[in-house]
Structures are given as structure tokens and as C-alpha cells.
Amino acid sequence: MKFAVIMFPGSNCDIDMFHAVEEAVGEEVEYVWHNDTNLDRFDAVLLPGGFSYGDYLRPGSIAHFSPIMSAVKKAAEEGKPVLGVCNGFQILLESRLLPGAMRRNENLHFICKTVPLRVENPDTMFTNQYQKSDEIYIPVAHGDGNYYCDEETMTALKDNNQIVFTYVNNTNGSRENIAGITNKAGNVLGMMPHPERAVEDLLGSADGKKLFASIVKQWREKHAITT
Amino acid sequence: MTFDVTVYITWKEGVLDPQGAAVTESLHKLGYDGVEGVSISKMMKVRLQAEKDNVEQQVVEMCEKLLANPVIEDYTYEIEEVIPS
Questions:
Q1: Least packed by Cβ within 10 Å: which of A123, B17, B32, B84?
Q2: For residue B7, is pLDDT > 70?
Q3: Active site includes A109?
Q4: Is A110 left (phi over 0), alpha (psi -120 to 50) or beta?
Q5: What is the CATH code for B2-82?
Q6: Taking the model in full, what pTM does it have?
Q7: Where do the structural domains in chain A lie, given as residue ranges?
Q8: Is A94 part of the contact surface with chain B (CB cutoff 8 Å)?
Q9: Which ipTM did the prediction report?
Q10: Which fold has domain A2-225?
Q11: Rounded to an integer, what distance in angstroms lies between the CA atom of residue A195 and that of residue B36?
């Protein structure tokens, strides 16, 4: 299985993401520059955290016009797994690949710590290695992680089981404690916490490893059926 | 023709503005009890070369595509023609 890690000017979790794939789950992975336009050779796309374009204007707002984003949208439409973490999540929101928007953290502080998350939906291609209601420890590091959406969107998120992770203790003021959501089809996941920073016990938690392992498992099963 | 466009980005009604809330609290601490709320918004100045009949359309497009996030933000704008001196 081959992963792409998209690098925007200002991405700074790209190396962690690469490491998580290469070392923790042992799959192929390549960096792809934001000016590239083709992702056809990849099976999964990862948008790392950081501060794309310095977060000028709003986090993710400028990155979503990068040439590579057309290819990311194409991959999403084709049903490939697309994971956006932190700034990657913000880019997915600005691109409307996921519904809602991010506001400043409710307490106005940049929050950098490992927090417990609850697995709300273990039936996705990103979470099939977890059990429902598992508490997992994943680091957060963000200033704009306060998830917002209107009532109609919230109802749709619940009705379609799109809420994948919630904070056990609401970290940043997000509506309904939301830490991660998928699109309706379930193949695009955005989350503020950083699973790629929690793939080895040495890092303080290895709970994020199962997320990458879930993607690989789902791909292998699908691949076995189609060949 | 040259235009000076002023774009104001404000929070949609009902969207919590944490910065505004913090400033409200601070003003109360200074004794301004009459302050019922503060909303912090963004103002942008755009100088634009355009034809008179499509300048407004361009401004609306810029706001919708990039300058504002319509999920949480509203926008208003003023367009003023720059008269060469």
C-alpha cells in the first residue's frame, strides 16, 4: 500500500506522518509537494499538521487553492482514504471536503498536551482496529481547534455516524466535544489530535498506531476481494 | 479603472467569538459596566483594477471563495473609485 504525505509551505508534521507510515506500519510512503497535480499512484493521502501559508487569513484557507488540492479532491471522490490532521483538518474544512469550520480555542490559548479521546465510531476505514468507547491518548497542539457547525450539519453528522472521535474532557470548546469527523462516504477523516505523534511507547503513547493499521487493514481486505 | 475596496468580515450571529468575549471581560474589569458585548472582526483594504460593470461581482467572488468563510462569517464591502489626482 502506498501513502502520500502532502507538503505545503509551513507543514511541520510531515516528517512525523512519514515516520508513522514507514516505521510504525511498515508501508510505502512518499512526500508530495503542494505544486504537484497528480496522486493517481497512491492508495491513501495524508495532509499533515503545521501552519500552511503561515495560517494567514484563516488556517487552511490559502492551502485549499494549492494545485495539489484538485488531486486530493479526486482521490476523495474515488473513495481513497484521505486523512487530515490538525492543519490538514482545517484544510479539509476550508475545501468543503468536510462540513463545518474552526474557531479559536475557547480559552484563547494554544493547547499542547496529550489528551484522552473516545472512539465514537469504530466502523470506519480509519478506526476498525479500535473498539467502541475505547479511550485513547493522543497529543493535541493547536490554537484553532474549536469545531463549529450549524444545527442542520450537526444532525447530519449524528445521523450518518460521522463523528469518529470526541474529547473526553472538552479541550477547546468544540461543539459536542468533537475531535474528529468523516465525510458522509466515510473515506475522508479530519481530526485535530495527532495520531502520528503517538505511534510508539517511546513517544508517550502508541494509541495512534491503530489508526494507520486500520487504513492498511481495510485496503488489504478490499484489495484481496478485487484481485 | 482603479477601486479601493474595503471588506469587513464579521462573525455570523450565534457564532461564539472568544476574542470578543475576552475583551468584553477586560472592559468590565476596567469598570465599563455598560459594555454589553464586543465583537472582533476583520477589515481588509483591497486596491483593484477592474471595469466598472464587473467590480462588484469580482469583490463578491473574492469574499465567497477566500476572504470570508461563509460557514461562520458574514461580509460586507464598500467600493470607492480612485480618482487620479
A1: B84
A2: yes
A3: no
A4: beta
A5: 3.30.1280.10
A6: 0.93
A7: 2-225
A8: yes
A9: 0.83
A10: Rossmann fold (3.40.50)
A11: 42
